[in-house]
Design a protein that fits this description.
The protein has about 100 residues and is mostly helical. Helix content is about 70%, strand content about 0%.
Length: about 100
């Protein structure tokens, strides 16, 4: 049995909660990168191509600027970018 993919309705509040409060992780914490990547992918799955593209392009840009190219968090961002564009293109092909 597969776990359903999280939705943007779940991920936006999760990201906001992660980034607030005295115990908030660094913006480049792996958990934050994962939620940002999942959010971009969820936007693409929900047919929100413009939001997805903006989210993932910003994520990749941030990681490239602040982390090394061989950092696993940068790799996660790059993988999310590939998935977002794959989803966007597949929706375009169905239209």
């Amino acid at each position: 049995m597969t776990t359903p993919s999280p939705t943007t309705a779940e991920l936006y509040p999760r990201l906001a909660a992660m980034l607030t409060g005295p115990d908030a992780p660094n913006a480049f914490d792996a958990a934050v990168i994962d939620v940002r990547a999942d959010l971009a992918i969820a936007c693409a799955r929900e047919g929100r191509a413009e939001d997805a593209a903006l989210q993932v392009e910003e994520l990749v840009k941030d990681c490239r600027r602040e982390l090394t190219g061989d950092d696993p968090r940068t790799a996660r961002a790059e993988e999310a970018k590939a998935e977002v564009w794959r989803l966007i293109e597949s929706v375009g092909e169905k239209s």
